[in-house]
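User: Modeling request: complex.
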Amino acid sequence: MTDLPQIPPQVRAKAPSRFTRAWDSDFAYQFRRSPVAIISFTVVLVLVLAAIFAPLIAPYDPFDPASLNLMNGFSKPMEPNAFTGDVFWLGTDDQGRDVFSTILYGLRISLFVGAAAVAFAMVLGITLGLLAGYVGGWVETIIMRVADVQLTFPAILVAMLIFGIAKGITPVEYRDQMAIWVLIVAIGLSDWVQFARVVRGATLVEKNKEYVQAARLIGRGSGAIMLRHILPNVLSPVLVIATISLALAIIAEATLSFLGVGAPPTQPSLGTLIRIGQGFLFSGEWWILLFPAATLLALALAVNLLGDWLRDALNPKLR
Amino acid sequence: MAMIEVTHLTRIFDVSKPWLNRVLERLPKALLTAVSDVSFKVEERTVYALVGESGSGKSTIGKMAVGLLSPSEGSVTINGIDLTRETDAAKMDKARSDIQMIFQDPYASLNPRWKVRDIINEPVTARGGSGVGLAEKLLEQVGLSALDADKFPHEFSGGQRQRICIARALASEPKLIVCDEPTSALDVSVQAQVLNLMTNLQEDLGLTYLFISHDLTVVQHISDKIGVLYLGRLVEEGTPDQLFDDPKHPYTQMLLAAAPKMDGFGREIDPPQGEIPDPINPPTGCAFHPRCPLATRQCSAERPVMRELRGARVACHEAT
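Assistant: Request completed. Predicted assembly structure:
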């Protein structure tokens, strides 16, 4: 008899840390391989951070009348002002406000309104979509017909309508304070339809799967099944739509503000800045318009590209 | 008293087009009779198998047995409780924890976003119970590792997933498990393992199975009684020996003749004639008469009732 080699006690591989797992995931790999994703993510990240830390970054507070000097009005970018000698990176507007600072604060408003509107649309759309898909029957008929009717109107028109109604019913003295919130509700209400449609479609697929039947069999109520079983499985298309919607919501907000029905001049968003700037375009002060417009373009483009990439990365059929 | 009593069970599905189309195209309502007047009993701690072709209504009966579908007519009672008519919430809850189901497709029957532990514990945690250690115990019982509890379903193969489904079905300590073709999505080699596991569990835990399958060779070995379905009707019922050695209904005879056999080299048999008829527009009388070699005028006029024949039950006018 030969001695059999001792079998070492089974060594269990150490479980990879959360970070390693995230780094090794398919999703992270796709991200690292896509230059478009990396660049657009960086642009979005820089803009978001700039917006969040605007009070720290901005060299001037454009909304503090005490710090404004009318003599600084219409300073050209990177050139010392003819009267005061101050240098403004991106110039100043007619009031002598630093364009760079107004852009940072405008970015804040634009991003906040965009994100809040998408969040509102998402909550509304997901709730109604889940109900329509899971409950079916007349609930589904009513929700989806309302959605169909709303889709026949352009989103901007719906938002303007809601904005107009809200403005009509709010007292004059609160109008400026309410404007931002009204804007969020208006854009959110004009945008819930696609969330509802996608979630309903995905819910119809999921609710017939056997794991849902298994949950019903156990005696789970409809609410628990919708929230705990179906919702996690319909979220990935929602994530893609949310990203693309964010770009659309930011543009919608800019459009409304440009038309003068959005953010008030006391709380200017990028759209308001563009509206202010376009008045000076033909008199030669191009920087007042160009820089806010370029920022808006960069933001919307980067978010959109990120959304496109996300859609492809989450779709296994396109790999 | 039998554990499951199925009496005159009928399920009709409305498969009509939407109301507006029907009005415009002047179509009548289309009603599909998936299950028609089926009665049988299952004794406790036995395995009752329902076999039939696709479209014979076997899954529909299974879903009605666990209360996922309500019968159009007739009733299913389990230990005297009718799941779709019981109003006492406590009794209902007790009955629900006594009944579990194993599904056909192990890829669709586990929520892909849930950890295996949560999936297995759900029958207990959904009732407010504590599932600590339960999933690990059950995983080992079905031949997996306790370490698998922290994994997600996509990390397992089809056979392993079906074992997880079995573990979930066992979590609430049920008395009855309805198995809806639990092996038909699996490889033949894995089928045998899963079947053996299910048989062992049935004997160890004293379970009752209502086993739904289209595979005669599978049910031959595990069941105590077999019911043969044709177009939503029960045509023959008997023990495996009675059914395989002495098939009485011409449909059962046709099925057995068509089944592949190990010693069947060079044998010449006629393939089964005809197709299963349209359940929206079923034949009059005996549903099998258009394909039946023994059919007489009585068969096309009068639906045969179940009768005793040499210890088994058969629904045929001509069977002797």
